[in-house]
Design a protein that fits this description.
- With 216 residues, the chain is α/β, with parallel strands linked by helices.
- The protein folds into two domains: 2-13 and 83-210, Rossmann fold; 15-80, DNA polymerase, domain 1, CATH 1.10.150.
- Helix content is 43%, strand content 16%.
- The chain has nine helices and eight strands.
- The chain has helices at 15-28, 47-55, 60-76, 88-97, 110-119, 141-151, 166-174, 189-195, 206-210; strands spanning 2-5, 12-13, 83-84, 101-109, 128-132, 159-163, 178-182, 199-201.
- The strands form two sheets. Strands 5-4-1-6-7-8 form a six-stranded parallel beta sheet, sandwiched between helices.
- The longest helix is centred in the N-terminal third of the chain and has 17 residues, at 60-76.
Length: 216
């Protein structure tokens, strides 16, 4: 059995890095954030969607420029303004020991995801890390999960997608992959249920409680 883990809001808490990088990008664009904006709601969804919303435009040029400013700071500083949820390393070890094959499946570009996973010493727990491309390919979780299933020759019935936001769940549903929404990240129970989550987990320790069988 294969378990696909989202990164931001599922394995790690990236709030400081992501929100500061969004603020940096908007400043570089000469744009003020709308009063009362809670930037935490942009943790998880693709960057392009975030800046379409914040810049109130569908024009590709300003969105791409904002993404460039974001990534400039993120690649230098922001990716390390981050922390692993404390129970996660132990939970991953339990699941791997039970025979589950673990993957990172994130909308974040894989070049950043790999560095983050390595920085926190989690690389050995995963069979592989899949993310989007810098040009925006596979930022949509529906496309990304389809890519992972094809690339790794995994049948949908043999996989779960685990993530904290509705787009994680919708990506799994679109590919007939079972889904577990998690509440220690940045999505609400309502968001996850509405997206079609098969189960919703409250705390990281529930991962090993839910996946108790022999993963192999």
């Amino acid at each position: 059995m294969h378990l696909f883990f989202d990164l931001d809001g599922t394995l790690t808490d990236p709030c400081v890095g992501i929100t500061r990088c969004i603020e940096h990008a908007m400043f570089q664009m000469g744009q003020a954030l709308p009063v009362g904006t809670d930037l935490r709601r942009f943790i998880g969804p693709p960057l392009q969607d975030t800046f379409r919303t914040l810049l109130d435009t569908d024009e590709p040029k300003p969105v791409a420029e904002a993404v460039k400013h974001y990534r400039d700071r993120f690649s230098r500083v922001g990716m390390y303004e981050n922390e692993v949820y404390p129970p996660i390393p132990g939970e991953l070890t339990i699941l791997a020991d039970r025979g589950y094959t673990l993957w990172v499946v994130t909308s974040k570009p894989h070049v950043f995801a790999e560095k983050i996973i390595a920085h926190f010493g989690l690389f050995a727990r995963f069979a592989g890390i899949h993310g989007s491309e810098l040009d925006g390919t596979n930022t949509d979780k529906r496309d990304l999960i389809a890519h992972v299933l094809r690339a790794e020759s995994i049948g949908p019935a043999d996989a779960w997608m685990i993530g904290d936001r509705g787009h994680d769940v919708r990506g799994g549903v679109a590919n007939r992959v079972r889904t577990a929404g998690v509440l220690w990240g940045y999505g609400s129970r309502e968001e996850l249920v509405e997206a079609g989550a098969d189960i919703v987990l409250q705390e990281p320790e529930e991962l090993s409680e839910q996946f108790r069988g022999e993963g192999a």
